[in-house]
Write a structure and sequence with these properties.
alpha/beta, 2 domains, seven-stranded mixed β-sheet, six-stranded antiparallel β-sheet, 10 helices, globular, binds spermine
């Protein structure tokens, strides 16, 4: 099948193959029905596919960012684990995640008064507003203030502003690279109010040992309390992805407040039990964390 996309090298007989040096020798493939959008933005290659069995799929620089079939797992956990760990979050910063999925989940927290959002690539936001309204509805919340620009530069100018900061980054290849380095984490720490906490896309302990070790090392060095939670996501490499967290006060491994019933009813993955269980790691992964 010939598909009209600018990432032809990833398309084999109508299947998209996610090939990346970060996970050498293995590639997840999804069958594609149609290319809905394909363009090189100022920062990266953006592709939006309709798959045959997993809904629409957003791909940046050849890497799967989400599919409609399982995006809820990642967005719910990356939003609600940190937000429910904090006893009273009022001010939130979200860096990355131009699809709006984290904003959609954060919007369920009535206690939030302001939600700053920083994304480098405005074209990702536009594409998701056009093709993924079930995620981009996150932008409709009138507490959300959108800042287009480099998240690393943005956070350097914020001092003691936020109760919670969530970093929904792509992988450390391409525009997201600086978001995996210690100076960025130092800036995140300075942008937190006393008692604040951060949560960042923490890669996979199966697939990216050295990246996970680096994130855990940085957060252990900078924060009083550190934690690593894991999420099952079938369309990410290895079927899992982590959340790397650092806290200036609140415990992370149990919710710091009640989950309102009206919020719980809207969720498909997150609940009090999975919050706690997500910090229980397989033996080899826990050993890896303990040795850092
Ligand atoms: N809001 C969804 C944006 C997705 N951001 C994270 C994407 C990560 C893609 N690569 C996964 C590799 C995991 N080890």
């Amino acid at each position: 099948m010939k598909l009209n996309t600018t990432i032809d090298k990833n398309i084999i007989d109508g299947w998209f193959a996610e090939i990346c040096p970060m996970w050498p020798g293995i590639a997840l493939s999804l069958e594609i029905e149609k290319v809905l959008y394909s363009n090189k933005s100022k920062y990266q290659q953006i592709d939006l596919f309709l798959t045959t069995h997993h809904g629409k799929m957003l791909v940046l620089d050849g890497i799967i960012q989400l599919t409609q079939s399982d995006e809820f797992a990642y967005q719910e956990m990356l939003a609600h684990v940190p937000l429910f760990s904090h006893p009273d979050p009022r001010h939130l910063l979200v860096i990355g995640g131009g699809d709006g999925g984290i904003l959609r989940e954060a919007g369920r927290h009535d206690c939030l008064e302001t939600i700053d959002f920083c994304e480098i690539d405005e074209e990702v936001i536009q594409v998701c507003k056009q093709f993924l309204p079930d995620l981009a509805c996150g932008f409709d919340d009138n507490r959300v203030a959108v800042h287009i620009g480099d998240g690393n530069a943005f956070v350097q100018n914020q001092k003691q502003m936020y109760d919670v900061i969530i970093v929904d980054s792509s992988d450390p290849v391409g525009p997201g690279e600086a978001l995996f380095e210690k100076p960025f984490y130092e800036s995140l720490k300075h942008a937190l109010k006393p008692g604040g906490l951060i949560a960042t896309q923490g890669e996979s302990f199966f697939m990216h040992k050295k990246y996970v070790e680096n994130l855990v090392k940085i957060t252990k060095e900078l924060f009083d309390i550190q934690g690593y939670s894991t999420i099952l996501v079938p369309t990410y490499p290895g079927g899992n992805i982590g959340i790397c967290m650092g806290s200036l006060g609140p415990q992370l491994k149990i919710p710091g407040r009640q989950i309102p019933e009206k919020v719980q009813q809207q969720l498909k993955y997150y609940n009090k039990e999975i919050h706690k269980a997500s910090f229980v790691l397989p033996g080899f992964a826990q050993k890896m964390m303990d040795e850092i």
